[in-house]
## 1
Amino acid sequence: MFASLRLPGALRAFVPALVGRSALAMAGLAVLLAVQEGTGSFALAGLASAAFGLANVVAAPWRARAVDRWGQPRALGLLGIVQAAGFVGFGIVSAVATAPGSVAGWSVALAVVVGLSAPPLGAAMRVVWSSLTDAGPQREKAFSLDAVAEELLFVGGPVAITAIIVASSPSVGLFVTAGVGLVGTLGLITSRASAALSGIPPRAREHRARPLVVPGFLRVLVVLTGVGAVLGVVEIGAPALAAEEGAVAVSGWLLAAFAAGSAAGGLLYGHVRWRASLGVRLLVLCAAIGLTAVAVSTLGSLPLFAGGLVLLGAFLAPSLITGYLVADTVVAPDGRTEASAWINTAVNLGASLASAVAGAVIDASGTGVALLVVGVVAVALAAVVPVRRLRGVEETADQSGRGSADVAVAAAGRAEPEVEPDELVRGGDAGLPPEK
């Protein structure tokens, strides 16, 4: 799996992409603590945090579409600059504003700005991997490495930003987040592999890749919302169970156990040479994470629960990796970044919805019931996987010897006409994102 880093240009793109993505791992906590200190209210801090998260999720597909259309250097560079400016503004408000109402108002507005402008570095890096690797085991290993590294970022990022804030102030934490995000983004787009992805010229509206209308792709997203729901309940349920047991300090270790299990699962996934089709893999993994959640719901003691979380996490990264591979296989080249972003959006949406409901369920019936319910939901949604359709796309790729990009176009019944010069300058259609 680590052989992927020896591919020409891979390490030069991968390292800064990780640096930039670490800003997202730090941002949520930085926003929360900055607003809480400025207002003295966790309710207002939660509101700003929710505004950041919601704006990030809602805008993700459209940001990714812009990257596909305009290319990584232009689109990611602009987004990185806007987001860094938003974090700097946020830090200034946190440092100088004194009235809680003023802090809250500006903080929510700026949280929306930094959420809307978050560069889709994860999706962009997966497109870079696709350009550097051959479809099949080589690409699976690269995606596995990427997913494992991302999991580790979300273990270390919150720890790092907490240490920075404790040693200085929340405003400094926001400034650091701005700098890390911008440095990582600029580092990625100045790499040769990223610079080569300069965008795809606009085609006629009816021929543009739209991931959501690719047969079977929407069903894959529905399945992955179930995986996200398990993630959302774990993030609420683990601290809740620790509090019930009078061991709040253990909360971080429980979440770390879950993340460690996910990283280990991703590493194992990348080392296995799979014979099963993507559809079968997605079905088995998503059903397994649901069944494991049901089993873990019966574990009451903290040591057993921690062990259960390791096992539960072992199915998380592999499920996401398989989802990314599906997106890479069934969607045409000019929609790959958007398709990858939709995978993240589906998981984040499931996590957000589950988190919103989990708190009430846990208060009423305990963590075990919340995990039981979400596990059953995940198993039920796994049945929606379009196994036969995905197998057909893969078989077409194997038989024809074509790349996934060509197969995706053929599978969706789209031609690849050359763009006439007048189509490039036609009023109202000059490379703008397609209307929904």
## 2
Amino acid sequence: MPRPTGRVLTLLELLQSGGTRTVAELADRLGVEGRTVRRYVEQLIDLDVPVESVRGRYGGYRLAPGYRLPPLMLSDDEALAVLLGLVAGRRAGLTTTERTASETASAKIRRVLPKHIARRLDTLLDAVAFTDQPGKFDTPDAEVLLTIADAVRHRRPVSIRYTDGDGRRSERTLHAYGVVAHAGRWYVTGQDARICEDRTFRLDRIADARTLPGSFEAPAGPDPAHRLLSAFATAEYRHEVTLRIHGTVDQIRAHLPAGVASLEEHAPVAGEHRATERWLRVELRAERLDWLPPVLASLDRPFVIERPDELRHLVIALADRLASHARQA
């Protein structure tokens, strides 16, 4: 059974999570009676922790606004989650321009951990192997990321200075719908207010972001992640590909995800389920076609190439090579 000191620290952690906690809620979490919760609160107040009592139907206890929290206290599981998150974020490229920030944060966490926990976590991190190399992506400025996130939350216009893939610089006013992390990069989706069209911007190409006066209403429809994937699937590339594939939605999406191809789903006939195999139209755009024949082969589903003819020739050539290899003794 936890000692009273341990319960007092647990009470502090619960109050640190924010909001007002009722006596009944705290008693249930701590496994004690309400009068014991009040005694623990008195102990925190004796330690100069400013716990406020809130009266009324939804009353209880909360920490006073602006209170500076004591040194970070993490359990074994919490420390493991934080350190693994820092490692995974660094390898995926989802960091800010301060490339050493995750490393210094990891070092600070290790420094305040009990030695036995730090040793176990270091052992785990030394033993972890990754199947890919750390991300080499350009990363956004932390202030830009936080400014745009605040504009998204409060539906405020934001002025950005942007450099596109061809090096052209421009200043735009953006109605940001959301921030999305995808394939090791950060993106923001929203409406370019000057041309009144939806656009997707890479955050690492934004040099400056300033919140502007006013507000806007976000449109109904797909969420920011779906908008981003749709933008990728319909982006302008050298080749436009149209296929018909006989299979289920899940079978096709396993090889051609939403960020790669758009899938035209027909309404199932009476009694037909989404998982039923049927002919579905798939459209995508690609700068090169050489990666598509192996993908279609791995689908192992009947398909028809509507366009372009070049893809048909590449698939036939792949089939001939495979047949030739298979006939070799």
## 3
Amino acid sequence: MLSIPINLNLPRTPRLITSLPGPGAQAIVQRDRAVTSPSYTRDYPLVVSRGQGCMVEDVDGNVFLDMTAGIAVTATGHAHPEVVKAIQEQSKRLLHMSGTDFYYEPMVELAEQLAIRAPFPNPQNNAKFPAKVFFTNSGAESNEGAIKLARYYTKRSLIVAFLGAFHGRTYGAMSLTGSKAVQRANFGPLVPGVTHISYGTHASLDYLEKQLFTTILPAQEVAAIVVEAIQGEGGYIVPEDGFLQRIRDICDRHGILMVVDEVQAGMGRTGRLFAIEHWGVMPDIITTAKGIASGLPLGAILARPELMTWPPGSHATTFGGNPVACAAGIATLRLLESGLMTNATQMGELLQASLTKLHQRFPRVSLPRGKGLMVAVDLFDEQGNLDYKLRDRIIQEAFLRGLLLLGCGKAAIRFCPPLVIDSDQIHIALEIISEVLSC
């Protein structure tokens, strides 16, 4: 049994003491509407006060089982004591000094730990590390930097990305994103030179090689193919066998860089530090964020050392690699490797088995897909069409019963809980979903 420190003041199961939203939550939602951007997407009126492990408590004292982890961010659970301790200790010493212009050990230590674990070829010229690291504040910023690095190194301008992909909402990242029209509408022109193809199938790679490369997309001008090992926002889509290996082969044959976005799938979520490791494929660049620091804003670009040759001043960031965030990242990595990745594998298997039973009982729920604790199911109507209205109703009704869920894709529910989740909590989540489907 995995030993997970918990705050005994919070129950490990949902506890609702008011109608939802409660009076305190209603008041804060009203205040929020007056001053915050309408671009935020809020699926339900949850106003969080505190969290511990897989549980969060709202401002009215209602406790929820969290199957979202703040969009796959709180990998070690909410407020893990070891992460909190690392944050507190570092905060007493140094809050900020900008790793762009100065040096401090937490940034170097985390870079070393990530670099030595990067799934890249053995380093050249007797170098110790197979990667170099650039720290960012977010996944979008990591992907922005990866675009720049790929173009800088190859001296090429074109990029291949995928329909259904989500890489962020800043201009370069948004130009790669192919998830939802609302994310791009009325923001053009976007960064030029990006071509999208379908994700996850050999047919799409046939189209790339036999149609695009021979007509409108010269392979010798393509800097990078940017791909998620498992699509996140696009629906937790696992690619066909051999798909990622074939991208590697295409890149090798044409001098193209393979950039793998591990922002959502990485940092232990699938049971491996990086999801690409499931396929034994070595990319050229990896982008990551979300779970890297258990909730503090941090991201990273990992690249083979011979690629990261851009000169001083060509790319920088004021806050990326913040010492407090790096301290949280060091603690997070230690926890992932001391049991949480194993737990992700074991609990992911239980989750998929439980969702398979749910499918057998409720055929409008698809069979599950995913790896580790990155799992999704689709919802269908009685005619067999994807049914986003049913998906949205389930999410809303689950919230009213104390379970936090998020959608993805066209009509999918994603399950991306903190990696500290246990079997009892998985059973509780499935019982709540069964109650909703039975209504």
